[in-house]
Every structure is written in C-alpha cells, then in structure tokens.
Prior knowledge:
The protein is α+β, with helices and mostly antiparallel strands. It has 20 helices and 25 strands. α1 (8-19) crosses α4 (96-102), α8 packs parallel to α9 (312-329) and α15 (499-507) packs across α17 (541-555). It is globular, with a radius of gyration of 32 Å.
Amino acid sequence: MPIRQLSETMINQIAAGEVIERPASVVKELVENALDAGAGKVEVVTAGGGLNLIRVTDDGSGILEPELAMAIARHCTSKLTEDINDIRSLGFRGEALPSIGSVSRLSIRSRTATSDSAAEIGIEGGRVLPVRPAAANRGTTVEVRDLFFATPARLKFMKGERAESSATSDVVKRIAIAFPAVHFTLAGSDRSTLELPATDDSPEGSLRRVAQVIGAEFPDNSIAIDAMREGVRLTGHVSIPSFTRANALQQYAYVNGRPVRDKLIAGAIRGAFADVLPRDRHAVTVLFLTLDPAVVDVNVHPAKADVRFRDPGLVRGLIVGAVRQALADAGIRAATTGAAGMMAAFRPGAASYGHGGPANGHRSYEASYHASGPAGFDPTRSPQRPLDMGFEGAGFEGPGQRGLRENEQAAFDAGPLASADARAGQSEAAETLLGAVLGAARAQVHENYIVAQTRDSLIIVDQHAAHERLVYEALKNALHSRAVPSQILLLPEIVDLPEEDAERLAMHSETLARFGLGVERFGPGAVAVRETPSMLGETNVQQLVRDLADEIADNDTVDTLKERLDKIAATMACHGSVRSGRLLKAEEMNALLRQMEATPGSGTCNHGRPTYIELKLADIERLFGRR
C-alpha cells in the first residue's frame, strides 16, 4: 500500500481524538484560553449536555481580526516562547481550536480593546468559512454546535445528558479553584446555574472560592498547608481526618496553577492519610504545587491533564511530610458534621423516620391515631404524657405507672455534701479542666462512652477507639525511633529480579536494614535476603521484595515495608487497648482525655472512625428551643 500525506481535516480529526474526548474537554480548552487572555469574567452555556451547544464568553484581551485565521490553524499559538521548558500558561500546543472545528460547527467572535468592531470566523467539520464583521463587546465568544457531527462514531461513546453536564461542571469547578479572582458562570439546558462570584488572590479569598466549590463546611473542617523543600512549594488545605468522603472526587491538585489528575500526587495523599482514614474513605484536599517550569513536564499528553516531575521522590516526600506535619500540629479536632449528625438524631421522630420516611415496621403517632379513629383521650397512652406521673387517684396505679414519688427518688440520692473547703478545691480543679480541649469527664455511659464537659460544649468519647489510637501511636513511636528487631534466616532467600530492580533495592539497603530487612546484591539479577523483621513472623519474602522493588521504581520510597509494620502495630494496639465494657474511675477518664489532647491523630481510631463527637452548647440550646 503506497504511503500518502493525510489531509489537513483528517489530521485535525485524529488530533481531536486525543484532545476532545467529550463536551467537558471542549469546555476545559475554551475556558483555559479565556483565562490565558486575562479574562476577569467567564460565562459558559451548554445545551444537550454540551453536544448540542457550548458557548464560552469572556472579557479578555480578544483576538485581532488579521489573526483570526491563524487562531484556527494547527500549532499556532501566542503563549509559547522558543523554550518548550518554560511554559507559564494553561494552553500552549495550538491544537484545541482546529481540533474542535474539525468535529463540530465552530464560530469565534472577538474584539480587542483598540478595535472599533468585532470580527467572526467559522469552521464546519474542518471547512473554514471566511472572516466577516460582527457586533460584540470586548473579549471573545466561542460557540460550538453539533459536537462530533463530523465523526458520528464518537457520539456512540457519549453518556447521557446528565453525566456530560456533571463532567462539565466538574471541569469548571476545578479550574475556578485556581483562579479565585475570576467570576465564573455555568448555565445548562436544565435551567440550573452555577455561579462562582470572584473573591481575590489572597489566602482568605482562595479559601472562600474553595468553600464555594466544595461546600461551606470545608473551611471549618480543614487544615492549612504551607511547606517548601528544595525549590518546590506546597500550599493549600486538607480536611481533618474525621471529615471524609466516599470517593476521591473532591481531591483537587494543581501544578503551577494548572489542574492535574496525577497518580503520584493522589498516591502521596493516600500515603499521608494512611494512618488516620479507613480504606473506603477519602480526604478532601486542595493542594497547589509551585515549582520551576523546567523541572516539570506538562507536555506528556495533548489533554495536558498529566504531568511528570524531574524528581518525583522529592514531590511525594514533600506532600506526605507536609500533610502529616500539619495534621500533627493541628492537634485534636472533631468534624462539625459529627455534631450535625447528632443534632439530627436528637430531633423528634429521627429514630422512626431516618432519611427516607417512617422506618419499616413503625408508624407515626398521627398515622396510628387516624387508623384507629378518634378515640377518647387516654393519659397512659398519650405521647404528651408528663413522665408517667402516676394518676394514683384516677385508677392508673400499676407497674411502671408510679411516677417520680419520694421512694422512687432514693436511687438518685447523692449522699451528704462535702465540706465548703473541699467543694472549693474541686471547683477550682474542674474549672481548669473545663478550659481543656476535651474538658472534664463527668460520667461513663454504657461502660464505653465518656461524657465530658467544656466551657461551651459537651463531648462524647468512645473509650476503646480513643485508647486504641493512643496505644498505636506509642507503638509506632517505639517502632520508628530505633532499628526494628530482625530475625536471621537459616538459609538466605534468593530473589530473582530485573537488573534495574536489584540495583534500586541495593541503593536502599541501609533504609531497609533499619526496618529489619537485610538485603544485599547476589549476582547481576538477584538479591539475597538474610534478615526479615521479627514482627512479620513467617512472611512471603519473595512477594515482599518484589513489592518493594515496584514501589521504589514508582515512588523511590520503601513505604510498603513501613506500612506492613504499622499494620501489625495497629493490630497489637486494637488488642491491647481499654476494652468496651470496662468501668473507669474519674481519674482514669480524665487521664485518657489528657493523653488524647497530647497525641496527634487521636481524633480518629486506627480504622478511621471518630474517637469523639463535640456538641456545642448553642446546639443543645437550639434542640430545646432556647435559640
């Protein structure tokens, strides 16, 4: 078969297959162009999930009429200098507009600040239409209609309108977080509108924009991150361990202001939260990496969503270290969502109704009343009865109906009061404890829950979960403060590996030895394992070494071994902690609270569940209608 040159339209359609996957991809490219043009306001309108219509309007610098034809030509851009390593804009490849125009009906209408009028150019399935005069304000409006009409096969891979609209919304939100000073509007055919008013570029303004996207509760449940290592700076916010989501969709990462979905960053976030979150929960994060453009490659894929770092180990170590340090410095904090859940549980009817109406097998009092007809008032059955007060004179004396008479109060007798001096000493000590984060222990409920009081809240602590975390942290500190004890193998285990993997393991042999794993080279393509960590007992040495080699190749770390040791420490902590059902004295309860306050990460147990819930006094007063 003879070799021939592909047509320009065919070349653009092939490029569109990489750049334009779905309507959300079009929105991403057009919004990035608007931001590169210095827009302060960006408006996005879609119809049919973006397949029928996408219109992006901005108030940026605009395009000069003579340059409109070049704007839709491949590899024509105003954003790239002669140095491919110095990329400081969102777009730079010069492929988006011609790729979009090759598979849709595209029109671009633009006007600069110095022009008396606007000009418009169009493309239909790759066929360029002539430039013509138009009326428009300063800025650019790009309109895309009938997306993929020129490549019908691609339409078969599109999802429903709702799914495509959701993907577009996610794209706009991700970009908006990085540009808080820009006003974003997204309107769809379902008449719903996403409005993100401009804030400012300050840290406070950035956090307000994050709250607009993620939710108003995030700032109160987040920790600020600000760290720098070898010219790489990491800023942003991460959620406290007790504020999580069921998936990782609310993890936002940016490299030099560019939204990215990077496996290394996602893995680093998982590693940073590994000790404090269960496997099926995910932290909420907004992280910004700022570094020299020359040490990061954003030209990995035409979609520009992937990046490659020159030193991935440095970036991963920075993220893991900074997040863990921030969690430790933040001390113990409870998520505000815990109080909200408790408030919902305390509301009348919560036990019967839950989230989806009356629970199975139960009917509301009103339903029972109407089903049985308008019967006479029965004080023993009324839901408004005053604490079963007895009704002795009305013939209601019986088991459970004696009320709160004097002989029933004997069980509540507190005994003789202490002296005035003793009471004064107790009140001083109690007042000091009330100022602590977890306050003063007041009671133990159901032999597992400690009820404590601060000056402005009520605290409920799960004693087993809390002590489990304390024991675990103590074991980890002991484990990592000195070399891990090892056991010498009777016969060395020889593990065959590719030459490069064996070399990587040899380079990390000192670190592995500190964790109790003795590894040395054994010929060109193998390593010999002479010692293994005692804590692991009998283990599959071959699999362990291969896993370590894979991790070193990916991340240049040996965290796999550390995580295995930490998992054993977690199991030991679970079995060695205060069990549910054990009665604690007041001194023991207060000692547990003080240890929790001094231990990083004690807001969650080893399995990621919260160890305590805080209910503010204002919330309690609201439950009783006092506010």
